[in-house]
Structure formats: C-alpha cells, structure tokens
Design brief:
Helix content: 25-40%
Structural class: alpha+beta
Radius of gyration: 20 Å
Number of strands: 4
C-alpha cells in the first residue's frame, strides 16, 4: 500500500476523485482508497454521506509521514487477529483475564452523520448488560460521551473518570453548503467531555496475576457493531 500511496499529495481534487470516481479492483486498492480518504477527510469520518475534504498541513498528518505511520501500525499488528462482527462475539470469546478497550459510538451523537454502522439505544443497553455479566472475569476500559444515561447504565462499574480536552472544529466550505463560514468562525476551539469507565482500580495494575500468558497484551476495540467493515464497501 505504501507503493500505491507514493507520489500522491493531499489535495481536494484527489479527495473528490478517490471518493467519487476511482474504482478499486482488489482488496489492496480498496485499502489504499480507504486510507487516502481517511487521512484527508474531516475528522477522518468515513461515512460516505459525510466524508468531506478536511486536510490541512498544520493539523493533519502530511503524506510524507504516511509510510512511517503505516510501518509502525504493521509492526504493532503482527500476530493480531482482526474481527468483523457483533461486539458480543468478541466479549464472550475473550479469555479469562483479558483486557478490553471498548470505544462504542457516543450515546447522544448524530449516529447517521458520524457512524457507518450506528448503535441503537438497545445496542447501548446490550453492551452495558454484557460488560456487567463478564465484569468478574475481564478487565475493561470503556470510553463514552458524558451523559446521565451512560452514568446510569454503568453505575455498577468500579470507577468512572471524567476527561476534558480542547479540540478544533475547522469545517470546510463544502461541509456547510448553506453559507460560507467567515474566517473568524473557522478553527473555533471547543471543550470535549468524555467518561472513562473501568471495572478495576488502575493503581493496582501489575499486582493482579494474569490468567493467560498472552492476555496481558490483548486489547480489543469492540465498540462498533461491525467495527471492521468499511464505509466504502465495493
């Protein structure tokens, strides 16, 4: 894929071409197309309806750094298994003592806008019930939008931490078709707020024996109902 990416600059014209015209003929070309669009779209959103041009040299990873990042990811993924399916399968099949990082769609987010495969309210409740059911044999760190509903669903958890951060919204003209935003409105900083939900005391990590020799390094992102499926399936 690095060879396919070589020589491609991040431009709005190429973004439009790879989104609307380019037709991959094999899995490698689909991966190349997906990666280019992910790196050059607003917030990396891969929902085809809202996959807008959003690259900027100052806040995006520049194409010259893409090969290095891909090699690092490749090294990290050696020996990993990538699954595509319902989150319940991953959770139920995880060995005793495994650690799961869980990153589901936000409870109060605009599901259709941000997610290719959205969560229903029933999915959020099902995930909470499943995590409570397996909380005695698994450790997990789960991230969500901070809302009364989520705090209620996970009131049984060991720890709920609140994390805040600043982030920049820098929408492009084609994302706001009804009017062109003045420069003064671009790059406005907002405060994000998220909860980190744990079923263990992080200060005790390393003191509790692990049930399986390979479990200590097992991290599963089981947030999305069909996490590995691509927005631009052919």
């Amino acid at each position: 894929m690095i060879a396919l990416l070589r020589g491609h600059e991040a431009t709005k014209e190429k973004h439009d071409y790879f989104k609307n015209i380019y037709l991959p003929v094999n899995a490698l070309e689909r991966a190349f197309r997906w990666y280019y669009l992910n790196r050059t779209s607003y917030s990396g959103i891969m929902n085809v309806v809202n996959c807008y041009w959003g690259y900027g040299d100052k806040f995006s990873m520049q194409p010259k750094n893409w090969p290095t990042q891909l090699r690092k990811c490749s090294a990290k993924l050696q020996g990993a298994s990538l699954l595509c399916g319902d989150f319940a399968t991953v959770i139920e099949q995880a060995p005793d003592g495994a650690f799961l990082f869980i990153d589901p769609p936000y409870y109060n987010a605009d599901q259709a806008k941000f997610y290719t495969f959205a969560f229903t309210k029933a999915d959020h409740h099902r995930l909470a019930e499943l995590m409570q059911q397996h909380s005695k044999r698994l450790r997990f760190l789960l991230t969500y939008d901070d809302s009364p509903e989520i705090r209620g669903l996970y009131g049984w958890a060991e720890i709920i931490l609140v994390k805040q951060w600043n982030y920049t919204i820098n929408r492009t003209d084609d994302q706001k078709k009804e009017r062109q935003r003045p420069q003064s409105e671009k790059g406005t900083r907002y405060m994000g707020r998220e909860v980190f939900i744990l079923n263990y005391d992080p200060s005790c990590v390393g003191q509790v024996p692990v049930a399986h020799p390979q479990v200590g390094s097992m991290v599963a992102n089981v947030g999305h109902l069909r996490a590995a499926q691509l927005a631009f399936a052919e």
